[in-house]
Inverse folding.
């Protein structure tokens, strides 16, 4: 079986719809991109560098969106929306 390219793993992470599998797919794609960036045998073209930068940004956005879906919205009046040190206090 041949090793999947960073592009294939990146696309698999983007297309994953299962929120349980998504973090693993994102991390696998991120590791594959890092491995590609550290390969010494073959230099990266500017085009591939640009594609990698775009892919990493998209993976970060995907991970952030997944985190936002996982955490419930704070209850109104709970003080969780206030900046640190400014949470509402019970009187």
């Amino acid at each position: 079986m041949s090793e999947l390219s960073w592009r294939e793993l990146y696309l698999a992470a983007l297309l994953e719809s299962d929120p349980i599998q998504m973090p693993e797919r994102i991390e696998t794609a991120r590791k594959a991109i890092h491995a590609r960036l550290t390969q010494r045998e073959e230099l990266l073209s500017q085009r591939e560098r640009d594609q990698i930068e775009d892919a990493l940004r998209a993976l970060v956005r995907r991970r952030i969106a997944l985190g936002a879906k996982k955490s419930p919205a704070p209850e109104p009046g709970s003080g969780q929306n206030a900046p640190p040190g400014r949470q509402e206090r019970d009187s």
